[in-house]
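I had to read the description of the data format several times before I understood it. For illustration, here is how one protein appears when written out as sequence plus structure tokens:
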Amino acid sequence: MTEQFRQNVTQGAALASLLTAFFILPPANAAQSDPVRAEGVDIRLVASAPEADGKIPAMLDIRLAPGWKTYWIDPGSSGLPPQITVSGPGLRFDGVRFPAPKAFEEGSARSVGYADGVTLPLVLSHEAGAMPARVTAQVMIGVCKDICVPVQASLSADLSGPAAANPLDKARIALAEESLPGPPQPDLTVTSARVKDAKLVLELTAPAGEPPQIFLSSSKGASFGTPKIVPAGPGRFRAETTLRLPRAAAAPAEAGITAVLVSGRRAVEMPLVFE
């Protein structure tokens, strides 16, 4: 949690004592969990019946009231990254997928996240021979308006009942998956990555015109400054930002850095490969 986030929580302590209680509601006998509600946010787990290849379509549905926001996997200098674990007998959980975020300027601070709610697909499957009856998610996210507070939730959805085959839920999960960044394209990609003078320097290809946006995250805990992007020729741009490596990574290539590149309504995602 960043220092600014801690300060905001302290300023809102009276409300935070109410909003950050650990909500555990009885599980719904359906493919949707009962919602967990706090001021400004409504969280639910949506899942569908296991498919023939072992995949279990599922997502977190985070709905925000007007004026509220929540955070991306790397929230910037003033946010709280989401913490999500999923479990269940016979389940395999391989992570959470995130749509392209937006940047929010807050005085001298910059945060990264979502202002209109967000759906987060879950990468779930079942083990061979296992037919899971229930999926459970433990969630903690930060939400902000005038104050910032962490909200925790325990969510559970039934995969064994007839509602697990609800085509509407399955279609909503498919739509959430379709909204994810795609693979890099010849006209929208990172063409090179290097570190020079403690700065991460990226060469980008993107449609001419307004510079693209780039969002960086690290599976090993590397931290980044605000990227500065400048034109570098027709259809080319250069992005620079400060890079602080964690102790677990002796070199940038060991930091597990991923880039999401956004141009207009298009977004692509790729791991950085260093020179």
About this structure: The chain is about 10% helix and 45% strand. The chain has two domains: 3-178, 189-271.
